[in-house]
Specification:
alpha/beta, 366 residues, 17 strands, 5-stranded parallel β-sheet, 6-stranded antiparallel barrel
Amino acid sequence: MIGGAVKGPLKIMDRKKVMVGMSGGVDSSVAALLLKRQRYDVTGVTLKLKPAKYMGADDGHNDINDAKMVADKIGISHDVVDFSDLFEKKVIESFAKSYCSGRTPNPCVLCNKFIKFGAMFDYAMKNGFDYIATGHYANVEYDADRNRWLLKRANSGKDQSYMLYNLTQNQLAHTLFPLGDGNFEKDQTRRIAEDFGLPIAKKPDSQEICFIKGESYIDFIKKNFDGAKREGNFVDKSGNVLGQHNGILNYTVGQRKGFGVTFGKPMYVIDINAADNTVVLGEDGNQYSNELIATDLNFILFDYPDSEMAVTAKIRYQAKPERAKILPLGPDKVKVIFEKPQRAVTKGQSVVFYGGDIVVGGGIIS
């Protein structure tokens, strides 16, 4: 069962309307194909996101054309919706400002919250769709005992539930994840695309930030935003000056190399302070911490924890879930204490909480 949808083949009179976000890639294309096979009334939508001032000659056109070709092959209609102004404000500008303030953001989390499951979701609901769908590898289920919609890990090495912790109950009730529901691995998804003859079957996955191509994120921010180039001091935990850095944008927590200064022993970035424009360095071992504070919270399993709670938690997408406990500190703040110290707990990244396969919720490390 996908996202609480009706089991079994749908009768024509019961066909539900689904708007599938189609990026032009393999995952979203196969998601659209699977839903069409299940006899949903499917429309593909490609979002125009990158503002013109950041675009090269071919930016966006290839993905839109690929999505249109796939839609034609599957036999569904296809539209393009322009959310570039909102994407610039909520994703690109937030991304740049976060880096310039000494934080390390996750733009995919921002995009899912404000664009795909924000603006795109609202657009679908206003235009008479019953569901939206994407090519994410995750699961949605309804728990009658809790009277809650649940977000769960996909039983797949490609699980992307970490990126989706901001989904609300209403969004979960109207969202389908066909790839997660099918417990597909990526090679299975590609095989389905190849077997059906989809023109994007061998298209490589994107390995970069979608709005930055042909340059590093550092160069992108320096070129387009002020406040990214100011030099300052490396300091130790006591505030003693160790040398000069060439701008906080160039450093991330846990970094060990690329300082342009030698210290006679390994040193690691353990904090970045935009207020006084310093990068704090510490010796080996100082890059580990067993606790953090998280804000900008969203909980799925309940509205907010009313007491201490044992969970497993991930402090970045590729991290392994580790045993921890959540301590509520207020309406939008929790302390997270890990059993084992975690390497490079980084401000601006998301910490996501799990109870087994269920996503409990998450927030931003502050």
